[in-house]
Amino acid sequence: MDSFKRKTPEEILHSISKLHQGRLKIIIGAVSGSGKTYHMLREGQQLKREGIDVVICAVSTSRRPETVEQLADLERVPSIHWMDGSIERKDLNLDELVARNPEAVLVDSLAHRNREHAQFPTRLEDIRFLLGHGISVITTINVYELEGVHLLAREWTGVEAECTVPVDTLELADEVRLIDVSPETLLKRMEEGNVSSSRNAGLFQRGNLGVLRELALRLVAEDVNGSLEKYREELGLIGPSGATERILVSVQYHWNSSLYIRRGQQIARRLNAELLVVTFASPNRELSSEKAALKRSILKLSDKVQARFEELSLPARRLLPTVLVRYALDHHVTRIVLGHSRQSRWQEWWQGSITNRILRKTHNIDLFLVADSALREGERILPAKAAPPKESGLFRRLSTVEVEQRIDEITRGRFKILIGAAPGVGKTYAMLREGNSLLSKGIDVVIGLLETHGRADTAAQVGMLTQIERAQISYQGVQLEEMNADSIIKRNPEVVLIDELAHTNIPGSHTKKRFEDVIRILEAGISVIATVNVQHLESLNDAVEQLTGVRVRETVPDYMLRMADEVELIDVTPQSLQQRMREGRIYAPDKVNQALGAFFKIGNLIALRELALREIADDVDERLEAWQRKNALRGPWRRKEVIFVCVDLNLCAEKLVRRGFRIAYRLKATWYVSYTDDGRSRSAEQEKKLSGIRDLTERLGGIFMKLQAKNRQEIVEVIVQQTTEIQATQLIVGQPLQVKWWTLRRSSVVHQLLRRTRHIDMLVVANSNPHVR
Description:
Blueprint: H1 9-19, E1 24-29, H2 36-49, E2 54-56, H3 65-71, E3 75-76, E4 80-84, E5 87-91, H4 94-100, E6 104-107, H5 123-132, E7 136-142, H6 149-157, H7 169-172, E8 175-179, H8 183-191, H9 206-235, E9 246-250, H10 257-271, E10 274-281, H11 289-304, E11 308-313, H12 320-330, E12 335-339, H13 345-351, H14 354-361, E13 366-370, H15 373-377, H16 400-411, E14 415-420, H17 427-440, E15 445-449, H18 456-460, E16 466-467, E17 471-475, E18 478-482, H19 485-491, E19 495-498, H20 514-523, E20 527-533, H21 541-548, H22 559-563, E21 566-570, H23 574-582, H24 592-596, H25 602-626, E22 642-647, H26 653-667, E23 670-677, H27 684-699, E24 703-708, H28 715-725, E25 730-734, H29 740-745, H30 749-756, E26 761-765
Parallel strand pairs: 1-7, 1-8, 2-3, 2-6, 6-7, 9-10, 9-12, 10-11, 12-13, 14-20, 14-21, 15-16, 15-19, 19-20, 22-23, 22-25, 23-24, 25-26
Antiparallel strand pairs: 4-5, 13-26, 17-18
């Protein structure tokens, strides 16, 4: 969005200088063999078809057939070959490139050190030189070749980078694109001889590949987040975007502060969020020796847990909620962590409750209240090491249920999902390409359902693949087509390709949703490769609406993602996606302007891309934990958790259910959703709403409970009693809507629960409105 603010002379000069600069695009992957060079050359071919003058230099195909094929007729500017011991290296021939003066050059290995006496010591400086001459560059890099990241990679995997570039190199790029590949695919490529592991023998282990993959996903997500925050600031949007998390721990100079900071650290690690710690001090009063000592302790702990610490000036205690909320909004905080209040109701009425005032002052930030029981349990809240799971004896006889589960796993087909941030990223193209690759290896592959949406590039990828004829279904006098799962099962191929996993079937079909057909096909022993967009995941429904303003109606349960043996992200930058849209490669020309002004706005695409990157990073981390690696990036959680979500029949009930699921999934927790009937009659619409809440809970794997109270005054007592019975450790409620005078005269259910459940962690989920401060 263009600002009406007049540019400074420096800004004008910078903008003019950029006109003469070439563009830089960096393609990043977890390891060699991810397909970076293949995709770079493919982009070069696309640019050439568009009439752009493209050349290649210092490109290494490693003799991989698919990559060599992409060279085709691209013009090569000879590189300078030299020997580094027994290894042959290639340097860019800068003189030849400048003399040739193409519009774009493709070059491999951004993290490359040049020969002695070269014009510049590194390839990064070569590329800067070319950009200064108006030549655009597309180049590749592995994630562990970035400074800072290479230290983490060495610690967790033992991989050593031969050369590195500064981590802020990504900030120089106009575009950064991630090539995401699952460890299973990489290991298969290695078995087939298409990837060499000789340089880093220990790197090509499933766990190490998973760690590097997660590092790459999170690194690119952070880069995308910077663009999103800048865009939101230009639009004047307030509060967190919903795509990333930032945790703020509010503490006093008190002995229990360390418990709150460590609790905040746990939350931040599980959510892969930035951690901030704030304290408050009077500007006109020096700290006592005791508080000064506590401050030093808090500073030391904050540094240890990698939290950003800040002391805020507080002229008067009554201003604390205002100062805290203002700081949280300014720093895009998504959750404030603090201790439960110890005030009685009358003290709250007389002195004012900090918690209540925080809830009244913000609509965009969740509030997490740490249980009082933590004060008695001390450091048990964050063990230094998670206790390893007890292994069952190798000779223990399996139960009948366990045997049946193992048989189901053995006989079920393999399931792979290709996920994208939005339509048009290339999921179907990648699915067809993989299908043809499998077909060339003698595997029986068919197309179960294909939606090309008129895209010529996609249709061209069908190749020799056979398509299963669709079922004809009559609906309201019209003959419609649907995927024929019965025909697929009867045909019994080894692999079937199925588009648009979240699709709702035509009424009268065998199943309601396409993902249910996929489950039937998998149970028949047929492997499936399917596509879906991130906005269709059920638990992200609220986040997507917050980010884009669009409520997605067709969803797929998150357990489908967990069921998959492999999940790969098809990543495309928002700029490239919009360009594809303008060229008519996604929607018909008459729909392009409407799409660019709605769902395909640059801000929406940035936000959805970040959401997809973080979701797949979390999925990778969950798989690392499942492989029993101690190096899962998010670290262990504490004791066994039981999540208890309280809902009524208001508009945010389903949002609370989805939030409960996401928290429970991250904590490996049992979770319940409860509705308390207070004896009043419900309308047909309310009954439908209650049924929808129950269905959503059960679809996401939760336990729905309908509690009974004699009247409204008894609701809190019934909830408290139930939390005790199930030994709940975390209570989730929605932010109360009452204004100040109402809470003084008669407390809401939430305010009463705040007082009655101080022995339980409590999360108050915010009402989100980006236009309200």
